[in-house]
Design a protein that fits this description.
By secondary structure, the protein is an alpha/beta fold. Helices cover 37% and strands 15% of the residues. A hairpin with a 2-residue loop joins β7 and β8. The structure holds adenosine-5'-triphosphate. Keywords: ATP-binding, Nucleotide-binding, Transport.
Length: 240
Amino acid sequence: MYGSLPDKKQGYPILQDISFEIFKGEKVAIVGYPGAGKTLLLRLINRLSTPSKGRIFWDGQEYNRVPVILLRKQIVLMPQESKLLGMTVQEALDYPLLLRNLPQQVIAQRVRKWREKLQISDEWLKLTETQLSSGQRQLIAIARVLAIEPQILLLDEPTSSLDFTTANLVLRTLKWISQNYQTTIVMVNHRLDLVEGFCDRLLHLHEGCLILNQTKNMVNWQKLNQNIHNAAYKKDDFDF
Ligand SMILES: Nc1ncnc2c1ncn2[C@@H]1O[C@H](COP(=O)(O)OP(=O)(O)OP(=O)(O)O)[C@@H](O)[C@H]1O
């Protein structure tokens, strides 16, 4: 993918010199300092934003030629802040599947399957947003996108509100769906300890540029860990 989006206020590109491919079934992690452009990159992949320059391809076909409805069926984005929109947990889990016109029995099976994998208790089902902790809300948001069983899952900081054990459970579950359904997963995550055990490939964004695109085994994780939280770094300072 290659793209750039002008900052509407200041008129310079937010993302630039970005070119990479994502292969079917891959688990790709995106890391980078706050404001690096990670969320925007997910939005471009999900076609919620359009690049002012550059092109994005899906299976060799340019994005603007692929019907949006087809993309929406295959690609699901879990945003950083997930809302239940006044629904109970049960309703929120069922809703995306109802929108896809799945039979009630299939909906019930899918929701139960992913609830069990993520250890979401029956007792939560009647609760609404204000009765849930941020970690519980995040776990439900993850179950909701997994139950859709899309071809491509885009996850923006899916473990930010979770403790280490629950975050590990989530990543094991994501690995399971990837292995069993060949789901492609693109995940933004700040926690390198989790990312290292999860991804096949790492993309590192810095100030809107892609400064690293490497398979997991080629990444110098120790050095990345030292550099990633340092906003003062410039593109040329990175030497991997
Ligand atoms: N549509 C837009 N118009 C103008 N500026 C935008 C637009 N979308 C994002 N930005 C700006 O682009 C920059 C990158 O934003 P983005 O949310 O992608 O960063 P991020 O790497 O996901 O950050 P964080 O880790 O804090 O979530 C920010 O400075 C943001 O204000």
